[in-house]
Amino acid sequence: MGIVTVLWKKWVEFRRDFYKITVAAMISPLMYLIIFGLGIRTTSHGEPYIHFLVPGLVAMVTMTGSFGAIAQNMSVQRLYEKALDQVMVSPTPLWQFILGQVIGGSLRGLYAACVILVLTIPVRHGLIFNGMSFLIMILNGMVFATLALVLSFLAKTYSDAPRFNTYIIMPMSFLCNTFFSTEEMPDGFRQIIEILPLSQASGMIRSVANGESPGIIGFIVLFVWLIVLGSISVLFIYRKKNL
Amino acid sequence: MIELRELTKKFGDFTAVDGLSLSIETGEFFGLLGPNGAGKTTTISMLSTVLLPTSGEIFIDGARLTRAASEQKRKLAVITQEYSMRQDMTMDEVMEYQGRLYYMPRKEIKRRSAELLEFAGLAEYHRRTVRHLSGGMKRKLMICRALLIEPEILLLDEPTAGMDALSRRQMWNLLKQVNDRDMTILLTTHYIEEAEALCDRVAMINQGKLQKLDTPQNLISELGRYTVDETGETGLRSTHFSSRDEAIRYLEKTGSDAALRNTTLEDVFIECAGRKIT
Fold first, then answer.
1. Domain boundaries, chain B
2. What's the mean pLDDT when you consider all of chain A?
3. Fold exhibited by the domain B2-215
4. Is B80 helix (H, G, I), strand (E, B) or coil?
């Protein structure tokens, strides 16, 4: 029931800011597509580079869409508007609030990915996006929505949210299997990058797009991230002394 | 019934609330008074579970209040000092969100929202976003939001701050009405006359500690029902007397710059807070 309440609120926000959300979801991936995909024409593993890039961009926008939908929103609610107080004092179980945020955030990421899939129709001939791809997108979105929750509970000031974006999301966007394969990275560094959720999500979506099996390892890594970050966010909302 | 047992809240080295113990009976209108930084808002924040106590406990009708205590939280509604609402939601959405958080059926939410917004004179603005409301309208909306769920306990943190005199009087009447329906009210306020007019009992706190706790009349009697104000070189000085005759005798001895009046709760407050500050 509490989950439905949170999703209703997310829907109200989405409906109101529909155009802003849609345009924001399009801008940076579109830039990357134009610059790396169409401007600098090259190949990867004998295939047009755009075939490598599109699945990576889809994974990346599920990350940025989900993270952005929660991190900014929750930080503002908690630190500036104090609107979280309304939830804290209500009888709605707080774990349901967390789960609602995670699902809502993930759906926003999925919406951003769908926008990119529509935009890339003319250039992604032969790439497969099916139910499995969407499952990976949802899972990836859930991981990053949960990460956003954890960070927004840690935020001390309103300006911390954009900082998290700069320190965490931006490096992951460039390093985690989006624009180039992690295989080309030096040992040690490669292993660290590969356990990050975006590397796994990009790899799995790319495998599905090329008609291959995504494997099980990526799912395990994403689930581990989800359980760890989800547990921390639930722990914070129940136990953090000063919310 | 609300019971605070040895409630303490520390922020680093600073103790905001220091071993506060008190009970508020069901249906009581209770005032929590104190100067700025006395620990009033921190106490309300602990009651709303936004802050967890460093030590001590809160009980609602005998059961411990925690963030997981949905049964106890169902009884509570809070009106915070700040406008704790999403700025980009309309009044209707604010009310619906509140109703949904308390598991109210949608039809009931719509019916009660319409009634409350009409009562508060906000009905014609129901599609306006919070961002576009005046300070007074936001306050009224917060009260409508709190009353929507028909709470058993209403926690009010400076509910009339920033309101003009007329709106404040309207608010007093409204609060009296809901209190008459057996709703327990805990009020923090800077306006001492507000506490005197509304509260059955008041607690005065300073530097997080309980200083006095009694009915306004008993607190006034304890200080002395009559006050003589004298204007001297060091400013206004008030002297309190338990009998009118005693006060008049004192007045006769002093110069022409003195005046006799009834003691108010504000005198008790100044005596209590001032003594601690100086």
1. 2-215, 219-277
2. 91
3. Rossmann fold (3.40.50)
4. coil
